[in-house]
Amino acid sequence: MVMIQEKIKAFGIVLKKERKLRGFTQGQLAKESGVATSIVNDLENGIRHAGIKSLAKIAKGLGLKEERKLSFLLAGIVFSKRDQVLPDLDNYHPVLYNFLPYSLRRQGISPEEINEVFPPTTAGAPLEVHLKNGTVISMKIAFKLTPSAKSPTFKRDDDGK
Questions:
Q1: Domain range for residue 64?
Q2: Model pTM score
């Protein structure tokens, strides 16, 4: 618990630094972000943590560039019980770490139904999602590097995996 509290305070210091770099008071940042001043104050002082929606509003209010915004969000979101993020993704686009939950939800699978997730152990191996009802979902993502900037195409096997 002490370690988490120290990390929450460290995040508050980062937020305060970002705010001061822009010359904002807590009230100005709150207004610019569309959040209550008490949220900004409490975050900066390590009194509480916020969910992704509040953090995203604050990042927008700070005018953070995309890469810095993602890093800021991931640093703050680790304390939230509502929001889950894989570690070490601060240099990746949000679509990448939201793809699996989005795909599962599109198939009608809720987080409560998931028992365990096994990442690929070797190149070309599938990711496996084991559901509480005993069903195993096997997903394989194939990469094809092309010189053009085309959008990627995700393919499913004939059996829906």
A1: 2-77
A2: 0.53
